[in-house]
Amino acid sequence: MSAISVEELLATSVALATERDIDRLAQQIVLLGCKLCTADGGAIYILDITKSHLEPKAVVWQGKPIAIDYATDVPLREHGQFNTQNIYSYVAFTGQQTYIDSAYQFAGFELTEVYQRDQLLKCKSETLLVMPLRDCNQQTLGVLELFKVRNGHSSSFREVEKVAQAFALQAAVALDNAMLMAMNRHLIQVLDASNRQLEAENKQLRLQRKSSQNYEIIGESEPMQQVYALMDKVLSSNVTVLLRGETGTGKEVFARAIHQHSDRNTQLFVTQNCAAVPEHLLESELFGYKKGSFTGAATDRKGLLDEAHRGTLFLDEIGDMPLNLQTKLLRVLQEGEVKPIGENKAHKVDVRIIAATHCNLEEKITKGEFREDLYYRLSVFPIALPPLRERKEDIPALINHFIKGYCQTYGRKVTQVSPAVMDILMRYNFPGNVRQLQNIIERAVLLCDKETVILPQHMPDQILLDNGAALEASDELPVYTQNELPLKEMVQQYEKKLLESHLRANNWNQTQTAKVLKMPRRTLVEKIQRYRIHNEV
Ligand SMILES: Nc1ncnc2c1ncn2[C@@H]1O[C@H](COP(=O)(O)OP(=O)(O)OP(=O)(O)O)[C@@H](O)[C@H]1O
User: Fold this and answer.
1) Contact 391 CB / ligand 1 (< 6 Å)
2) ipTM for the whole complex
3) Ligand 1 centre and the CA of 254: distance in Å?
4) Is it the case that residue 374 has pLDDT exceeding 90?
5) Ordered domains of the chain (ranges, CATH)
6) Which of 8, 36, 370, 515 has its CA 20 to 30 A from that of 345?
7) CA distances from 158 to 128, 129, 303 (A)
């Protein structure tokens, strides 16, 4: 064996201690092992993560790494038994440093991998040394094999036993460190990935919470849930939204909510009703003007589109916008450009448009009153708001919301509506939708001087009339078309139905019903017994 210089030993130590990549380290180990023990070649096998196989990691021949494609994994167990036939798995299993001096005469182990490699390298292995690589807890990490080929003067590895052992120990420590680091890196990656996933999920959850709870819009009914789901989709984009719905369904409320929950919420939410002002005024409102561009234009004036720069412009009643302005608006949507009246050049604006309409735009297009191209630009993301009569389950929550608000405004102590009022309002069709309900409650709160409950007499006459008509039309009261009964009986039947209906509306509370019907409670009880009226609750 050629003597190893101190420098070479130091260089070996440094090389092993500094390499962190397992594949490169495995190659270094074999290269250095060959050099220290004057081997012609060598191979390293490392235990896989399931600790069931030894995987070939690097093979070196005459000082150079060669491809390891020929080598296959070596199982540690076969048929449930430890695979002690194979030299690598034997060493891995027993931890015994093993020497073979005449590979082709030796019958103690299967040396299939060795013979295969010899065929590939066109040589004949003569002496072999297979060493276990174990960590400080004596757990096997892999095995290192060194070999010398038959060349007439090859010597046994036994001569370098001590050097080989010391080297294997050092190599195992380096390998253990590198594996721990790789494991750490892997864990950090897994943690990072799961953190990113958690962050994304949290963001999504925050958005969902916003949608169902934080829009500050009253209504939990199914049709409203569908609207919230659509709103969620447009919050993080600048897409133009078209809100459609009857008057008073809350189009402005929803437009404001979209702005407030979007990235633009630090900038202005500007509104303009396109039906409320004449054409020339609407144009100067929206686009602004230059000083002197028309009589009365004493100074330059910014339009609302510029006011809403980086914010949102809500255009209510878009269906009533004059055709000339529709063309100008289309340019804003297509080019993001605004040209104030009297100005030669257009300038860029960054504004999100939310438009609203209660009218049938498709019909207006057919009549030539609305530009089809503008319609397509505006209705990139239409949201239809349901009329109140299609989400009556939201009426009680809206009533409470408005009662609270108006009690604060007017200093009243109203807490609720009577069951009869609730019944009347639940029956009503609300052509004016939420706005109409809001007005009804405002009026009722104002009418309640000392009362804490809103009663039928606080309802507008029209609502009571409509309610009476609805009651008559419903099955709850008998409608006689023929005089098949004497009048007295007809009146009695009518009285019975009327009492039933009021009792139901007052939640079968007899005192309350008697009060509403302005009759003594005792008389009501007598009639209930006489007509055999039964509480349905
Ligand atoms: N879901 C709701 N929760 C609480 N208040 C609402 C709701 N929807 C509407 N409102 C109230 O109803 C009134 C009418 O709403 P809004 O002005 O947004 O309706 P609109 O559809 O824009 O009406 P129009 O078509 O007449 O312009 C407002 O005072 C608003 O505060």
Assistant:
1) no
2) 0.98
3) 8
4) yes
5) 6-183 (3.30.450.40), 222-386 (3.40.50.300), 388-474 (1.10.8.60), 481-537 (1.10.10)
6) 370
7) 10, 8, 95
